[in-house]
Amino acid sequence: MFKQKIITYVAILLTISPSLLAMAGDLVQVKKLRCELLTNPESVNNRQPRLSWEIAGDKRGLKQVAYQIQVGSSPDLLTKGNADLWDSKKVETDSSVYIPYKGKQLQSRDHCYWRVKIWSNMGESAWSDVASWSVGLLNYNDWKGRWIGLDRSFPWDREDQFSRLSARYFRKEFDAKKKIKRAKVYIIGLGLYELYINGEKIGKQVLAPAPTDYTKDVKYNSFDVTDKLLTGKNAMGVILGNGRYYTMRQAYKPYKIKTFGYPKMRLNLELEYADGSKDYISTDDSWKVTADGPIRTNNEYDGEEYDATKELTGWNTVGYLDNAWLKASFVQEPGGMPRAQMNEFMQVMDTLKPKAIHRQTAEIYIIDMGQNMTGWVKLHVKGAAGTRVKLRFAESLQQDGSLFVANLRDARVTDSYTLKGGDQESWEPRFIYHGFRYVEVTGYPGKPSLNDFEGMVVYDALATTGTFSSDQPMLNAIFKNAWWGIAGNYKGMPIDCPQRNERQPWLGDRTTGAYGESFLFDNAKLYAKWLDDIQAAQMADGSIPDVAPAFWRYYSDNVTWPGTYLSVADMLYQQYGDEHAIKKHYASMKKWMDYMWDNYEEDGLVTKDKYGDWCVPPESKELIHSKDPNRQTDGVLLASATYYHLIQLMRGFADLVGNESDKQLFEEKAARLKEAFNQRFLNKSTGQYSNGTVTANLLPLYFEMVPEEHRKLVFENIVEKITHENKGHISTGVIGTQYLMRGLSNNGRPDLAFQLATNTSYPSWGYMAENGATTIWELWNGDTANPAMNSQNHVMLLGDLLIWYYENVLGIKAAKPGFKQIRMKPDFDNPLNQATGSFRSNYGLIKSSWKKEKDVLQWDIQIPGNTTALVYFPTADKGGIYENERKIEDVQGLRYVKDDNGSSVFEAGSGTYRFSVNLTMSDEL
């Protein structure tokens, strides 16, 4: 027996419980659990969750050769060897990720407990700890009770462009007649909710549930509340906020902005008593409701107002007198199928202390949080009853020190708190968020101090999976800015910005963005959910909007924005090894591809483009968009090149789903388009496509559309354009920047990619940082352009920069889907001298840390269990490569594979390695 660990990951349909048993000796350890989005809750596959585990050991080259999974209906049965739901027996395979459950058919509300053991090339493990999953409400008829709400406003509300609608407070008292064995609550609270039992808030989530198109899909959340209930009298309370359901701009541009109605809810509480009997509490007209509470308005764009003099003390506890409250009304359901929310909740993930505070006028103070963040401010204050403190938010200041709000458009971004008086009071909003660095405080009684405010950082509770540092401070600063920008724009869906009157899930912003983000955050469940949002937004004819969910109705029929549907599905496969997204969405993706070809194909090209190479650096720093045709890339070229790339993805998808006829059709279409593209756009004598912008030449080069004999010249044109005409600076917009850094590095110019990444003069990512940015701007000239569009927290201009950080600088790239095999090939011949970073894949932690000193390269790597890596050393002389001072050819577990353009390639099994390479013999450095 050898010392090894199995870290289990469990995919469930509704909830996940902590490990239930102690460690099974020191041979096996369950270090953490993870809930994967694997199935669509309304399909039969929701009865077949997939199970994954992570393997680690002390010895190198650890590989699984077989597994055995046991699933039982109770932990006691399981540990006694009675796997009454499923015993896979010994299955000979090295698969340890996404293993489908194949036991007895699961039903709504089932609780399942599972464990796994493995056989490896080094021996057999003990059983893992027991983990669990629960099955949700699979069928519509599993829901009891009805939807309730109040389908009207009140005299203190206002419904117009700047709507004001107060929160609804619901309450219900009930008896738990016997000793409770288990209690679970299922809730759909639209737009947003907070749930209380006996005065205590349930769960750590905020701004729940995740937003969807509620006419097609509504998310429910569930909680085990066994320890919150008492035998006898209990009270439940729910506050409903507006969220995306009752939209921020009522009666304003109804042709564009989708609205859904007034807040409403449906709730089921299921009680299982110790004697085996059950009881159900559900929403009906016995619930009481009031809108005359302290939350007077809550509006994502404009803020939240709270009047503490109107607090309903004890409203969510037993015995509260609710005689003045209204009877809840039965209301129309939203229309969407209730489905369990499988992506992570939003939470308060961090708390920031302000860095500075200064007095602007006699009544106004300005707080600097020191970081452009997303969330809200928690206020601590003491004063007379009726005193009103206002907090207004912005990303930057004007020259006189006051807030700069012109870039927020008509978003009023103001919270207010009216004191009840007496002791010190603390308050934070519930149903809004802001994107900000600075806070204007008005009406604060006395002189405020830094300790009176806390910045509550809110984003989806995704694990941070990637780290990076180097000896180049600007690279490190940009990486940090990217992290803050990405985190701030995760809001149950990927949005474009968190501060102005937009905050929409634009598809084009994440085409490669999702891929780069996946190195920093475990974003698989978020993007799987987003694919469902896109599919739900697809029209019957196949068209896909530019924003999904389609809160804004933008069906503009272009290629580059909706094409993100395919690229995100491909990301989930390549980065996480999840085929499910491709198989689930294949028909819808093909339907869109056919729609675009059938409607916009002319002479073998796809002609429809809407946005061009969005946000190229303009000729004047005061412009938002360039007006110089020499900087703009032909829309037909953009659409056709991108469509060709998407055809290649669909060809791979067809292969994956086993559709040979589709695969053949895609190959034929690709050949036709490629020929027409080169005929139309390639100048063979100059090696230039169209008008020769970097994007015009880069896309066909990166997508392998350029005839082999012209590739060198086309790339030389790109280099010439960047180095001379653009003086070593970036000239691409959203589309070109998605392939720029890899396009340069993979074609032999990592030094030029490094220059673009570390520039500090305009236009560059470094220019943003040098000019005070702590996130990523929407525009390269976000400090000087017209305020109508210069969000200071956008991520679309990151392009493939983060991919370059990991795949080219650190050399961490998936050689096989999901990092079952890793390609470790840093660009050692860039000007960096040191880089260190890590990425946690589904198989475990991958590390790469290298340092160049004089004529020696030191390189430390870590490879997770049950994987292998192809390690590229920058020398053809194997005799100059050592591992822990031993010649590499003498090291067990390392196998020479090949010579690759002067690099020696070895295959390495799992483990940690310390290499040194003699660079004096290398032609590469």
Automatic annotation (TrEMBL):
InterPro entries: 6-hairpin_glycosidase_sf, 6hp_glycosidase-like_sf, Alpha_rhamnosid, Bac_rhamnosid6H, Bac_rhamnosid_C, Bac_rhamnosid_N, Ig-like_fold, Rhamnosid_concanavalin
Catalytic activity, reaction form: Hydrolysis of terminal non-reducing alpha-L-rhamnose residues in alpha-L-rhamnosides
Every Alpha-L-rhamnosidase six-hairpin glycosidase domain range: 464-809
Any GO molecular function: alpha-L-rhamnosidase activity
Annotated ranges, domain Alpha-L-rhamnosidase concanavalin-like: 363-459
Presence of keyword Magnesium: no
Cross-referenced SUPFAM superfamilies: Six-hairpin glycosidases
Class of this enzyme: hydrolase
Domain of life: Bacteria
Domain Bacterial alpha-L-rhamnosidase N-terminal residues, every copy: 178-348
Transmembrane parts of this sequence: none
Keywords per UniProt: Hydrolase, Signal
GO biological process: carbohydrate metabolic process
Assigned EC number: 3.2.1.40
Keyword Signal carried by entry: yes
Signal peptide: 1-24
Domain Alpha-L-rhamnosidase C-terminal: 811-883
Listed name of the protein: alpha-L-rhamnosidase
Species of origin: Olivibacter domesticus
